[in-house]
Design brief:
34% of the residues lie in helices and 19% in strands. It has a five-stranded mixed β-sheet. A four-stranded antiparallel β-sheet has the order 16-23-20-21, with helices on one face. Strands 7-5-10 form a three-stranded mixed β-sheet. By secondary structure, it is α+β, with helices and mostly antiparallel strands. Strand 20 and strand 21 form a beta hairpin. It has nine helices and 24 strands.
Amino acid sequence: MSHYKPYPAYRDSGVEWIGQVPEHWVECSLKHALAEMGSGGTPDTDNPDYWCNKINGTPWIAISDMSSTEFVDDCQKAVTQAGIESKRLKVFPQGTLLFSMYASLGHVAELGMAATTNQAILALLPASGINQRFLKRWLQSLQPYLVVDANNATQDNLNAEKVRNLPFVKAPLIEQQRIATQVDSEVVRIDALITKKTRFIELLKEKRHALIDHAVTKGLNSEAPIRNSEVEWLGEIPAHWEVRRMASIFREAIRPGDQSLPILSISIHDGITDEEVAAEDRDRRVSQIEDRTKYKRVAPNDLAYNMMRAWQGAFGAVTVDGLVSPAYVVAEPMIEFRTAYIENLLRTPMAIEEMRRYSRGIADFRMRLYWDYFRDLKVCLPPLEEQDKILDLITRETSRIDRLTKKTQRSIDLLKERRAAFITAAVTGQIDLRESA
């Protein structure tokens, strides 16, 4: 933003986070910029048809519908007109600004269709003399200020009265229009770059998965003879690889816990940890048993898995002595091989689908892969030296891809910071865009 000039003269706005504003702008409360403010609610549930197909009903907007986009053009739920009338929920016109008061505090979106909202969302319509696009960008500039207050526990949630009293700095209407046009143009440019970089990360992830999938099922030598594994999910494999039942390479291990060992966790994305996760970093839904002897002890080279999430890839090759949940399964190697190779194999999409087939339960969230079924799974096993070469390649190439992914994600974060900074600088008059539009 260094190529933008400031206004000729400024004065103090009286609001600490805003600082100085152009001398001819007028500071006031947000209520003076609004012609209308309203909120919705949750329709009566005693009407059996209150949730319905949104083609036949009125869209009902929740914060989840507006948390990742500037425009709400679709939503997951809708209500019948009867359900709306029973609660007297107002239907807001297309183009209405939405402002979240609870979760995703201060998020702003614009309605792409007429809809009603829940009670956590305010619907805002600008007053005469206020450009709606400028108002939208002003509301976006408030978000960091609101989040800081919430983190300081002074403003956990907003309400309509607090929103009305939020600060607003009013520029002349023609300036609002020019500022909004320039901001919209810059936001479109930055968002296009973010989209391009986000797609690049997706391609990197696809390449990472493809690399691992091919290495652990086809090997590294493209000229090696192949044969039919006679296992549907494996298909063709190098002719010199073995096909083994899990029961021939692992046995279930049930070892008592030890108070001195760390409690390890298993992720569907990252496998098993090699140290205990700090309490503040754990999923709040996960609680630990104080008596660690009730956990299962694991040792290096074991394979541990979460029975309920095995079909999602919740496996881990153990690298340190530790403990895992008593609800997990621990498999101990009976022959010499690399457990990390098996972990990578079990994370392939084909293997995950096979484990889903072997899991038992009436719904996905109840599916469990018990040892008695896991032991019957068949896997391919290269010679030990080849396993090492495959793991070396996976480690080297995934590390390279992960570094590039991290670098790209950092550039996305910087673009988002630039986007937010530009919006704030524009709508608070820190830069003069009058001649830019």
